[in-house]
Structure formats: C-alpha cells, structure tokens
Amino acid sequence: MKLSDNKATLSFTDGSPAIELPIYQGTIGPDVIDIRKLYGQTGMFTYDPGFLSTAATASGITYIDGDKGELLYRGYPIEQLAVNCDYLDTCYLILNGDLPNVEQKKEFDTQVTRHTMVNEQMNFFLRGFRRDAHPMAVLTGLVGALSAFYHDSTDITNPQHRYISAIRLIAKMPTLVSMAYKYSRGEPTIFPKNDLSYTGNFLRMMFANPCEDYQVNEVVERALDRIFILHADHEQNASTSTVRLCGSSGTNPFAAIASGVACLWGPAHGGANEACLHMLEQIQANGGLATVGKFMEQVKDKNSGVRLMGFGHRVYKNYDPRAKLMQETCKEVLSALGLENDPLLKLAMALEKIALEDDYFVQRKLYPNVDFYSGIVQRAIGIPTSLFTGIFALARTTGWIAQWAEMIADPEYKIGRPRQLYTGETVRQVKR
Ligand code: SDX
Question: Does the annotation mark 342 as catalytic?
Fold first, then answer.
C-alpha cells in the first residue's frame, strides 16, 4: 500500500485542535484514511457498526467492485477462472498468488489428494451427534476437532506448518462434509478414492454406497467444480472477517476455520442458499407462479419481515457476477439431467424479472447474489437443502485459510480488539 499525497483533515466545531490523517492507496479500489492514531490524538473512536465504511485490513487476495459487479481472485476475473480453470487451480491461485504451471498443478493435486482421509477417530466423534443434527452443527464440530489431531503442524509462525494446514483443510473438507451427510442418512461413510478428481471424489463420497458404486457424471462434476470456484473467496465478508479475528489471537488454523464455518451458517450470509430454496419451495407450495406478485408485495412490506432470500448484497450494488455464472450453470445441469422444466427455476427467474423491474429493488440496488440460483442446481444434483451451506463452507475454506495465512505472515498484524460507544449505567454503589 502506498502513502497518498492527499491527506484528510478532521476539524471540530467545538474549537478542539484539527488533526491531519494520512491516506493510503491500494492498487485498485477506494483509498483508506488511516485512523490508527485517532484515539491517541483526539480521545475519540470512530463509530461504524457493521463496518459499512471500514477497511479492517490490507489484502492482495480478492478484489470486488460492487458498482461494476466485478470480482477478481489475485487479479483474474471470476468469469475467466470459472470457464478456464478448475477448483484446485483456483485454490493454488488464491493460496500462492498465481495460477500453477503444469508441474505445480500436478504436485498440488497430488498433495491435496494424499490428504483427503481423516483420522479414524473422527468417526467416533461423529457418532456423538444426533442423526438429525443440522449438517452445519456437525461440520462446525468436526472442523474444530481437526485441531485435536494435528499436533505436528501447529506452529503458526512456521510457513511450512501454515502450508500443510492449508492443504489438510482443503483436502479434508469434502470428506468431512460427506461424512456429515452420510451420517444423517444412517449410511456408512465412503472413503476417498485417489484416482478421482477433487470434485468427482466428493460426489462419489456423497452418493456411492458399499453395495453400489457411483459413476461420476461429467456435467455434474464440472458444474459443482464451478460452484466451488464461485464460492472460493470474497474479500472481507462476515465469515472471513471472523476467521481473521479468531486467528488474530494466535489460535490454531483449524479452530479459526471452525469459527468461519459457524459464522457462514447464518441466513444473512452463507445460510441464504438454504433459506432461498425453502422460500422457492414455499411459494411453489402456495400456488407457484400465480402467487409471485403477492409474494413480492409481502417482501416490499417492511412489517411482513419477509425478505427475498438470495437477493441483495452489502457490496454488490449491481448484478453479483457469480449469480450470472450460477444461473448459466444451473441451466446447463438442469438440461443435462432432463430437468429443464424445473418449476423452481421458472419461479426464480420470474421473481428475478419482477425484482429487476420493480422500483423497490431498483432504488435499493438489490440484485440476485451468489445464493439465488445455487440452491436450485445443488438440489438438481441431489444435494439436500440442509447441506447447501456445507458445500459453501467446503468451497470457502481455501479463501478462509489464505486470508488467515496472509494475516499471520504480516509482521504488523495484531490481535483484533474493537472498542465501543458505552451507553450503559454510570458508576453506582452496591447497596445491600
Ligand atoms: C452472502 O459479504 C459477502 O461477500 C457475502 C457473500 C460471500 O460470498 O461471502 O457474498 C455471501 O452472504 C451473500 C448474501 C446472502 N444473503 C441473502 O441473500 C439474504 C437476503 N439479503 C439480505 O438480508 C441483505 O441484502 C444482505 C444481508 C445481504 C445485505 O444487507 P445490508 O447490506 O446490511 O443491507 P440492508 O439489510 O441494510 O438492506 C438495505 C435495504 C433495506 O431496506 P431500507 O431499510 O433501506 O428500506 O434493502 C432492503 C432492506 O430492507 N433489503 C431487502 C433485501 N436485502 C436488503 N429487502 C428485501 N429482500 C432482500 N433480500
């Protein structure tokens, strides 16, 4: 980051001395006003609940332009990565800063493949959960439990330890997600198979069983791999910021990633794909296309508490580029599976058409986000709705661990410790 010639001056109408604040520039995107000395110089904090105007860190991993609807991973547009690369290419890029050459890719794929198994003890841990537990509850537990097994790589100041933890997490997430799924169905877990692709291996662990193997459908494999790419990282979103804050205490990477899984579960964040599909199924059950207009009136009525799930975004005030790619993938998979007349897709497209022409949405710059179509394609693949956020967590693990590693490798990083505006009682004595 570069010190700008421009400076910010903060003056006060009560005659307190004005102060000058430095401004820093990144490579692209908004400049930042450096307020690190503000409290020391003024005795005041800034106030920004929800961090609408706050950059919590400098990062070189992902860039989003919300007005243009642009998303870059290490400078590469998501549209090009989704078409020309696979998910492990993208993991390598996000972790290392550039796309792998042929040898690097081969070595990376082999490293990840060779770490897909989990310690057999994890199965005993898994059996402690109710079979009907939500998969995200199980996944939060399983990911956190990984820190109970890898004592050989917990020195976070050691780049090699950081790297092997990243490989282990990327490699084991598909195994853990499929374990949670199989457990919920009362089926035995399926071991990884090293001669399959990353995504093909995941599909087989999900849908094979000891009595019948699973033939990977190439269209489904490619579609799911693209879904992983689209979800791989997304700047300082809520779960990534959680991973950074959790990791800033110096805890191990498995615990930090488990905090990201827990945060992603929320319906305002990664849980929106599950909530969106439930919304579409509800509309379908209540009469389908004929009732869409009435539903949209509810959404616009503040008192209804109804939101159009899968719509809107804190940063994108234009179409989420991932939503466009997700809609294309959705249509590809549905037609490959002979489901092009899927009523939920028709419903989603009807809702989108109305919203994009309705003043309520246009004024608030509400567009479909990554979650609007992802549930429909996952459902068509056979992934249960309750597992959609688990798939999101699987894909986002590479972004989380790369952002965590970027923070830990920064010699200037400190433990995160925001302050507050206190609005409680003034000091008072206990009278007994
Ligand atoms: C993800 O941050 C990331 O990058 C996240 C993510 C990632 O990859 O990590 O992109 C993944 O989480 C995508 C978002 C998934 N969430 C949803 O689809 C849930 C539905 N959308 C929202 O609840 C909402 O849009 C948020 C949470 C996504 C963004 O919320 P903001 O930025 O805090 O905006 P807001 O809630 O203040 O809404 C602004 C206005 C409000 O109306 P007014 O008070 O101005 O009158 O827009 C309205 C809101 O009521 N609004 C919606 C709406 N989203 C916002 N109204 C109806 N339906 C919606 N979906």
Answer: no
152 pLDDT tier (thresholds 50, 70, 90):
confident
Q: Which of 269, 309, 319, 326 to mutate to test the pocket of ligand 1 (most atoms within 8 A of CB)?
A: 269
pLDDT at 42 > cutoff 90? yes
371 is catalytic: yes
Q: Which parts of 60-158 fold into alpha helices (H)? A: 78-84, 87-96, 102-113, 121-126, 135-145
- CB environment 341-373: b (16+ within 10 A), e (fewer): ebebbbbbbbbbebbeeeeebeeeebbbbbbbb
Name the residue of 51, 307, 316 to mutate for ligand 1: max ligand atoms within 8 A of Cβ: 307
pTM value? 0.94
Residue 387 burial (CB count, 10 A): 23
CA of 313, closest atom in ligand 1: 28
- Residue 181 pLDDT exceeds 90: yes
Distance CA 374, CA 276 (A): 9
Alpha carbon nearest to ligand 1 atom 27, residue: 268
Does the structure show a pLDDT above 90 at 116?
Answer: yes
3-class secondary structure, 54:
coil
Which contacts (CB < 8 Å, 24+ apart) does range 122-128 have?
A: 122/149, 122/176, 122/179, 123/179, 123/189, 126/179, 126/180, 126/183, 127/183
Q: Which of 134, 231, 234, 313 is catalytic?
A: 313
DSSP tag of 426? P
Binding-site residues, ligand 1, Cβ < 6 A: 234, 237-238, 268-270, 272, 299, 307-315, 364, 366, 369-371
Q: How far apart, in whole angstroms, are the C-alpha atoms of residue 158 and residue 170?
A: 19
Calculate mean pLDDT across residues 269-292.
92
